[in-house]
Amino acid sequence: MITNQTVAPTSEPVTRAMLKDHLKIDTGDMADSITPEQSIVPGSHAVTAGFTLFGSAVTMTADSALVMVDSGANGVGGTVDIKIQESDTGVGGWSDWADGAFDVINEANDNQIHEKEYTGGKDYIRLAGQVLTAACEFGGSIIQYTPTSDEDDLLDRINAGARRRVEGITGRQLESATWDYIIQDWPDGDAIKLPYGNLTSVTSIIWKDSDGDETTLTVTTDYLVETNGEQCGRIVLPYSGSWPSGTLYPSNPITIKYVCGYTTVPDDLKTVILLVAEDAYKRGEDGKQLKAVIDFYTCDYRLHDEFN
């Protein structure tokens, strides 16, 4: 078998800020350590029909953010409802964060700054609002703690390396990524197991005949998909189905493209990444003690199958 990662993760389970906090690295000036971005531009906002005032999306680079609504004067009888929304992509799939509703802003509590901390874990967030009865003045900002230092590039490499080590130990893909799984023949049985656990979806199954001509199989008709939770997913033949017949191309004839990885990486595995990164940063000073800690935190997450 051959596996190729064709689309890498877009983020790390452990942010640079989390790693710096763990390593107790002082970054100096506060101004250099925070990143403020506007979501809803300050100004007078007219009455809306429901939650139709959408702020700009902000990319989350820290593990949390301070979300602020700076309220000016409400019009007579005017009220403002603001909530935090989150998304995996930033271009769709927006949903309300469960703890993201601000208290209603009215004439009794306008001209104030209203705050809420976002800890939801998605890659993108924004503010959404509705204005009732009369126009109201306000804006919304999202502030992240993103400390910088001379060692940032080194820390990013160490962090990514630590994540890859944990993936190797557990046999899992942590953050979502796309893989090609290439096999040389159809199995004798009715299923193909896919590596790395937490199968999200199968994009395509393409096979080449002896002339190199490609055929794409059809889901449901030619195969079924078992995601199997945190275990390895499978491609399964439907009832009375069979794998394609005919002579296969001699080189890498069957390619299964699929997406896998945690929706939210468990805290235990984030802890291991931090510890492995710390050991690398200190150049292996705690290596002997580290192995026992890694074994303790990863034992319940290791995939025990033919891929390891």
Secondary-structure map:
Elements: E1 2-7, H1 16-23, E2 34-45, E3 53-54, E4 58-59, E5 65-74, E6 79-87, E7 95-101, E8 113-118, E9 124-132, E10 136-145, H2 152-170, E11 177-183, E12 191-193, E13 199-208, E14 214-216, E15 224-226, E16 234-236, E17 254-260, H3 267-281, H4 287-298
Antiparallel strand pairs: 1-11, 2-10, 3-9, 4-9, 5-8, 5-10, 6-7, 6-9, 11-17, 12-16, 13-14, 13-17, 15-16
Helix pairs in contact: 2-3, 3-4
Please give the CATH architecture of the domain at 34-145.
Answer: Sandwich
The counted number of beta strands is 17
Derived structural class: alpha+beta
Please write the string of helix (H) and strand (E) elements: EHEEEEEEEEEHEEEEEEEHH
The strands making up the biggest β-sheet line up spatially as 1-11-17-13-14
Oligomeric state: single chain
Which percent range fits the helix content? Answer: 10-25%
- Termini separation comes to 13 Å
The CATH topology of the domain at 34-145 is what? Jelly Rolls
Largest sheet: 5 strands, antiparallel
Give the low-confidence spans.
none
Rounded radius of gyration (Å): 25 Å
Q: Tell me, rounded to a whole number, the average pLDDT.
A: 92
> What is the overall number of helices?
4
**What shape does the CA trace take?**
globular
Please characterize this protein's 3D structure:
- By secondary structure, this protein is of the alpha+beta class.
- Among the domains are: 34-145, Jelly Rolls, CATH 2.60.120.1110; 177-260, no CATH class.
- 18% of the residues lie in helices and 35% in strands.
- The chain is built from 4 helices and 17 strands.
- A hairpin with a 5-residue loop joins strand 13 and strand 14.
- Helix 2 crosses helix 3 and helix 3 (267-281) runs antiparallel to helix 4.
- The protein is globular and about 75 Å long.
